[in-house]
Amino acid sequence: MQIALPKKVEFQKGDGPNQGNIIIEPCYPGYGITLGNSLRRVMLSSLYGGAPVGVKIKGVDHEFMSLPHLKEDILEFIMNLKQLRLKIHTDETEKIELAVHGKKVVKASDIKKNSNIEIINSDLVLGEITDMAGSLEAEIFVRKGMGYETLESREEKSSEIGYIEMDSIFSPVYNVGIKVDNVRVGKMTNWEKLILDVKTDGTISPEEAFEKSVEILINQFNALVKGGEIEAKEEVEEEEKEKIEDKKEEDSEEAPTEEKKKRGRPKKVES
Fold it and tell me: Which residues lie below 8 Å from residue 171, measured CB to CB, with a gap of 6+?
């Protein structure tokens, strides 16, 4: 006898932007919170996103300085940079540039466009220049990552003069709320309905976050059983078959040229 599986997964729009509800029912008694906690942990910690990892600011050597005519100090400016939400279409570290002159409120929309990077929250205020003589020029280094990364845990650190490293919040999911209600299945009234309230940063939808989290959990659990080993073995066997087939195709392409070389005037047979 097997534990019954949920039969329905429904996606609903939430109250705010980039927010959605995922309803899973009916869950076997006790499995609503089991599934909910697993999905929540994966969504918050194991999905890839983009974030700034460092910055170089013209006229600034370290984060405890201030810049003339910039209302915020450099530490506050960096804190604002950390809130940038980015969709990055490459696995390499990318550089985006900010150059603003004159009295102005500096926003993320002032950052020069890059074909590999989309800025989702372009209305984010980064700082304010309070005088026409003021200016703010910066090179912001961004890349893909997972979860939250501190400076201490970072393996590759830049020793470039004027480069300021920063902690990075890569996770594209802001919050995951779990609610479990009882539902009736036949005569049983203790079956469960799991409701996940998911809020993202806009680089990914709640539905995509859910689907990717499910995929991660399936892969992890597959690795714990023999089926995972069998699957890996089958993949290796398929790769070997493909190599053999490719080699046969190459041999068949070379064969006609060899036959052409052998063809010629037939030798005269002496009687």
Answer: 44, 45, 47, 49, 146, 147, 148
Higher per-residue confidence, 160 vs 260: 160
Q: Residues of CATH 2.170.120.12 domain(s) within the chain?
A: 49-169
What fold does the segment set 8-47+172-226 form as a domain? Gyrase A; domain 2 (3.30.1360)
Query: How many CB atoms neighbour CB 82 within 10 A?
Result: 12
C-alpha 245/C-alpha 240 separation (Å) is 9
Query: Quick one: what percent of the chain has pLDDT higher than 70?
Result: 85
- CA 212 to CA 39: how far, in whole Å? 10
3-state secondary structure 155-197: CCCCCCCCEEECCEECCCEEEEEEEEEEEEECCEEEEEEEEEE
Burial class (CB in 10 A: 0-12, 13-18, 19+), 154: middle
Domain covering 49-169, topology? RNA Polymerase Alpha Subunit; Chain A, domain 2 (2.170.120)
Average of per-residue pLDDT values in the chain: 87
Which region, left, alpha or beta, applies to residue 30 given φ > 0 means left and ψ of -120 to 50 means alpha? left
Nearest 5°: the CA angle 124, 105, 78 is: 55
**Where do the CATH 3.30.1360.10 domains begin and end in the chain?**
8-47+172-226
Q: Which residues contact 144 (CB under 8 A, 6 or more apart)?
A: 48, 49, 50, 88, 90, 91, 170
pLDDT tens column, 183-240: 988 888 889 999 999 999 999 999 999 999 999 999 999 988 866 565 656 666 677 7
